[in-house]
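Example (one chain per record):
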Amino acid sequence: MNKSKKGSLKYLDTSAKLFEELKIQKPVWWTLLKNDDEIYIDIRKNNYINAYFFGGSIVKLEFKKNRFVGEIHQKYFDNHCLSGEIIKNDNKKYVRINLNALDERMLDSIKKRINEDYLGQRTGERPSEKYIQGKIIKNNPNIIDSEFQYNQNSNNEELRVDLVELSDGVLSFIELKRIDDRRLRIDEKRNSGTPEIIVQINKYREFIKKNEEDIKDYYNRLLKIKQSLGLNVVENKILFVNNNPKLIIANSYSKKTRKRDERIRDIEKLLLKHGIDYTIMPWN
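Predicted structure:
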């Protein structure tokens, strides 16, 4: 039995009941989730699984009282269309659903609600950052995790990393921002101090410095679980943890202007000054 503290990096257990039972029972709904081209699946350190559609959680999977348990945010679940498929609803944010009823029709309905209630815009100059994140995940097989969260630090602040990449044995944390994000530079009206992106990247650097070996061990276990469950893993071993997190900026501008060029120059000057490894990625 894992005696590590719940929520810690050491708590993830390669032989946790959920992972073992998925391998043994091979439920039809699990195969459906794994084979859906629009869904990506993340392993969580408290030994549960999230299946995502562009950042919106299709289902959270656990194994409790000798059975699989699936939960979804109630706003993504159309009670009228899917009546009879809710097992438990305590009028909280999440409802427990009948996993055996999870089929393509049900998935399409959930995706539709996520599109309507969560994702927002996909096109134009202000596409949803979660949509961009999801596209990056689906197009880059080296992304092994998303929305990594850690809130065990002494001052109880929550650390959340958008993407985690493994390439040539090197594990990197990645922050994602859209080009028009005001947190990317000094703004005399809104942000006259240190831009939030600098504070954010420095927080990641500090976390990596303090926990490098635990991060490496955690993600090696996570890779082992993914492989055992038949999830796509391009590389299976972490050699090093990159101590300088990466920043991806999605340039969604559809046309150039003097002010926009000036903004991009200001951002690049700031990032170079602080030694941040960044990429400005064309998006339109």
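Caption: The CA atoms of residues 2 and 65 lie 18 Å apart.
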